[in-house]
Amino acid sequence: MVTVAFPALDAPGSVGVPTQRSGDGAHAAGFAAGFAAGARAAARTAARAQAVADQRRLADEHRRTAEHAAALAALAAATRGAQSRTAPVLAEAEATLLRCALELAEAVLGVELSDGATGAVAALARVAAADVEPVVVRLNPDDVRALGPDPELPDGARLVADPSLARGDAVADLPDGWLDARIGTALDRARAALASGGAS
What we know:
Blueprint: H1 20-114, H2 116-129, E1 136-139, H3 141-147, E2 158-161, E3 170-174, E4 177-180, H4 183-195
Parallel strand pairs: 1-2
Antiparallel strand pairs: 1-3, 3-4
C-alpha cells in the first residue's frame, strides 16, 4: 500500500488559499498597533487636559488670593474710616459726660451743703482728713454759726468766720502754709485732671 501525503495549505512557504489563522495574526497585529496608537493619543490628550486643569486651578487660586487681599484692604480702609468718624464723636461724648458728671456733683454738693450744719461738718471733715495740724480753720460765717458754740476741731486749732468763703468751704491755715478745702477748688482740680487726660 502506498501512502500519499498532501501538503498543508496553511504551512509556511506553501502556495494556497490563505487560511483564517494567518488572517488572525495580521488582525491582532493591526489591533495592537491601533490600540497602542490610540493609547498614546489618549495619554497626550489626558496630559493636555491635566495641564489645562492645573492652569485653571492656579489661576483660580491667584484670583481668590487677590480677591481676599482686596477684601481685607477694603475692610481695613472701612475700619480706619469708621474710627476716624467715631473717635472724635466718642471723645466729645466722653468730655460731655464728664462735664455733666461734674456739674451734677456740683449741684448735689450745693444742695447737700445748703444745709448749714451738714456743710459745716463736711468742711471740717475735709480739713481733718488732710492729716495736717491746722492753726486756724476758716469757714463761712453761717457755717460757723451752724456748728454751735463747741464744735469738734482738730487739736490746737481755732475756728474763724471768713465771709469770703462760700457755704461748705473751708481753708486751714497751717504753720507752713495753708490747705484749700473749698468745694469749688476741688471741682476745678477734677476738671483740670479730666481735661489733661487724667480720666483716661
